[in-house]
Specification:
Elements (H helix, E strand, L loop, with lengths): L8 H4 L39 E6 L1 H4 L6 E3 L4 E2 L3 H6 L11 E4 L7 H8 L9 E5 L7 H10 L8 H13 L1 H13 L8 E5 L30 H25 L3 E4 L2 H6 L50 H15 L12 E3 L2 H14 L14 E3 L1 H4 L6 H22 L28 E3 L10 E2 L6 E2 L1 H12 L15 E5 L6 E7 L3 E7 L6 H18 L5 E5 L6 E8 L17 E2 L22 H10 L4 E2 L2 E2 L6
Parallel strand pairs: 1-4, 1-5, 5-6, 6-7
Antiparallel strand pairs: 2-3, 8-9, 10-16, 11-12, 11-18, 13-14, 14-15, 15-17, 16-17, 19-20
Length: 633
């Protein structure tokens, strides 16, 4: 069996977060590659054999801003893709396993060689790696071309040219890093999975041409023109090309993990089609934007300071903090002009508590950025921009697992085909992701749902999957909210008094409604269960068609259902929708002409389809703007 016959891009890259680790068989310390197993007996997604694995890299691997901070020195967070992998069922449990997470925000390839790789034992089964962005100056690009935290830096154009030169010089540094990392692998079947970067922008759209992401209100900002977006994307592409070339030079023990096409495929880029920027909290966005909220963003109490507020020099956070602090020292009045309350002023008690925290942690003050001891604190929503969100890290984690499956199958002698990422969506038996597993897909209850729908008020376009995902975002809030970007007359909802039930419906053409239902509260981890369950239904059942599906959550009382059904169906809980006011079909199918007959007379005005039918079937002629002879009434 070829891998291409059982695995598919769309299935493997489901946007699923993992919350709980299921109990799976443990193979002790033995390596799967030494087991005498026939391929048909092997669960290719079972990596419970894995004993030694490590994470190396920069802020993309550290997961800056994604979830809660678990390491202050390197800005590591607990929803980074390595952390998501560590709690995924596919990794299983192994009492002997040792995982070293050495990724550090701000790390260059030379830092990884000097400070991370030497700390690894020479027994690694798997190493995940993200690196190269800091070598070419990611933070400087973001300052000079996007945010202007320090508004007096070089021009964007000159920064891009300098970055191109750095990209061209990257190859030798990557070779040195990979050679050092390969020396830490255990055997010929051990692998390094090198994660590439994703482009940030959709450069084909025009609605961002006059948009800026400027940080300071009093500055002019840098417009996100198509030309600028394309130039910044090209830097990512060329950096990835250098990484791919280095991976190829390193040989089969290093595997390149290409994230770029998937971030685009899922509509996860800035300035995507139909998006009016800034739109920091849209569900499909896979990068952090200013003021993007986490699913459960940890907020400190007002006026308190913890060790999580410390920014170290050399980290992405530290660079941003230093630029902002330098600007405020030169223009202290700008503090009052900050948008959205980016900075919070500290009181004396806060400073005292920070001093205590520094003393307890025995932190070298010389390592601290300028903004670690002063009057200001920078919020999470600012210091993680242009890094993957939690859902972006989930995409990366699933991609790494996918390549691990491929390598495991190859080691066991299974034919994976020439292009294992291509396959059939319909036939793939791969396990569904957490939290709830595969949904049950029910029979179609309506014959047709338009491939593209349009909001009659604002002209926004939606596809069937996109509608369900948009409604998921509203349903999975415990308030069971209306969709903010659609007119009220198009939508309705139901929520019971204790907020355990939520149903949202939208009116579609042809007496159809799109609907989602959750039968559980949606708070805490249940919010994530809700989010993931609807995503599974969308990808497994809806699949851009007039389909339905349901699934239970990880707890028996959790239930989720979504799809398309007759408008105001008898099973609906919501208040009735008006069938005459609905989203519009941008390409409606032709009417059924069964039973149409030529008559002696017909109205002189009719729709284009009817007129053409008359001409083709009834020998009609157009005269004086009307139809002269027999046509169907």
């Amino acid at each position: 069996m070829k891998l291409s016959e059982c695995c598919s891009r769309k299935v493997v890259i489901i946007l699923a977060f993992v919350q709980n680790v299921a109990s799976v068989p443990t193979y002790g310390v033995s390596n799967v590659f030494s087991r005498s197993l026939e391929p048909r007996d092997t669960d290719y997604e079972d990596f419970s054999w894995l004993r030694y694995w490590a994470t190396l890299g920069d802020s993309y691997a550290a997961g800056i801003g994604a979830g809660s901070k678990i390491d202050k020195d390197c800005a590591r967070y607990d929803r980074s893709y390595p952390y998501l992998m560590s709690i995924d069922d596919r990794l299983g449990t192994n009492q002997y396993r040792e995982w070293q997470n050495l990724a550090c925000s701000g790390a260059t390839t030379e830092d990884i060689v000097a400070n991370q790789i030497p700390n690894l034992a020479n027994v690694q089964d798997v190493i995940t790696l993200s690196a190269g962005g800091n070598d070419v100056g990611l933070s400087t690009i973001l300052n000079n071309c996007i945010f202007r935290w320090w508004p007096f830096g070089a021009s964007c154009e000159s920064t891009i040219e300098e970055t191109k030169a750095k990209v061209n010089d990257l190859g030798g540094k990557l070779d040195s890093m990979l050679n050092a990392a390969i020396s830490k692998l255990d055997n010929t079947n051990s692998r390094i999975y090198y994660v590439g970067y994703a482009q940030f922008f959709n450069a084909q759209t025009t609605q961002c041409n006059s948009v800026t992401f400027k940080f300071w209100r009093l500055t002019t900002g840098e417009p996100l023109t198509q030309e600028r977006r394309a130039a910044l994307n090209d830097l990512v592409v060329e950096t990835n090309n250098q990484i791919k070339a280095a991976v190829e030079r390193a040989g089969e023990r290093v595997v390149y993990v290409d994230t770029d096409p998937y971030f685009s495929e899922y509509g996860g880029l800035y300035c995507d089609e139909g998006v009016t920027e800034p739109d920091p909290n849209r569900g499909d966005l896979l990068f952090y934007e200013r003021n993007t909220q986490n699913s459960a963003l940890t907020r400190r109490q007002e006026g308190t300071v913890t060790e999580d507020d410390i920014f170290l020099n050399g980290t992405f956070e530290g660079d941003v903090a230093n630029w902002i602090e330098d600007t405020l020292e030169q223009y202290p009045d700008w503090k009052s002009e900050l948008e959205d309350g980016i900075l919070e002023e500290l009181n004396d008690t806060s400073l005292a508590s920070l001093s205590v925290a520094l003393a307890v942690e025995n932190i070298d003050i010389s390592k601290l950025s300028a903004s670690s001891l002063p009057r200001w604190l920078i919020k999470d929503e600012t210091r993680r921009v242009f890094h993957p969100r939690e859902n972006g890290h989930a995409v990366i984690a699933n991609l790494v697992f996918y390549h691990m499956v491929v390598e495991q199958m190859l080691a066991l002698g299974v034919d994976v085909g020439d292009d294992p990422e291509e396959g059939s969506f319909d036939t793939c038996p791969i396990k569904c992701p957490n939290p709830s597993g595969c949904p049950t897909c029910s029979d179609n209850s309506v014959p047709y749902v338009p491939a593209q729908l349009k909001d009659p008020s604002h002209g926004s376009l939606f596809d069937p999957n996109g509608l369900i995902i948009m409604m998921r975002q509203a349903s999975c809030t415990n308030e069971c909210t209306y969709l903010p970007d659609l007119p009220m007359g198009l939508q309705t909802r139901y929520q019971n008094a204790d907020k355990t039930d939520c149903e949202i419906a939208l009116a579609l053409p042809n007496n159809v409604e799109a609907w989602v239902y959750r039968g559980t509260p949606s708070t805490g981890l249940q919010w994530q269960d809700c989010w993931d369950s609807f995503m599974n239904i969308t990808n497994w059942c809806i699949r851009e068609g007039p389909n339905n599906g349901w699934v239970n959550g990880p707890d028996t009382y959790q239930y989720y259902q979504a799809g398309f059904r007759p408008i105001n169906d008898k099973s609906a809980l919501h208040e009735p929708l008006d069938p005459t006011y609905h989203l519009l079909d941008t390409n409606p199918p032709p009417p059924d002409t069964t039973g149409w007959q030529c008559k002696d007379k017909c109205p002189t005005m009719s729709d284009e389809f009817t007129i053409n039918w008359c001409i083709d079937n009834c020998n009609c002629e157009l005269t004086n703007g009307g139809i002269s002879l027999s046509c169907p009434l």
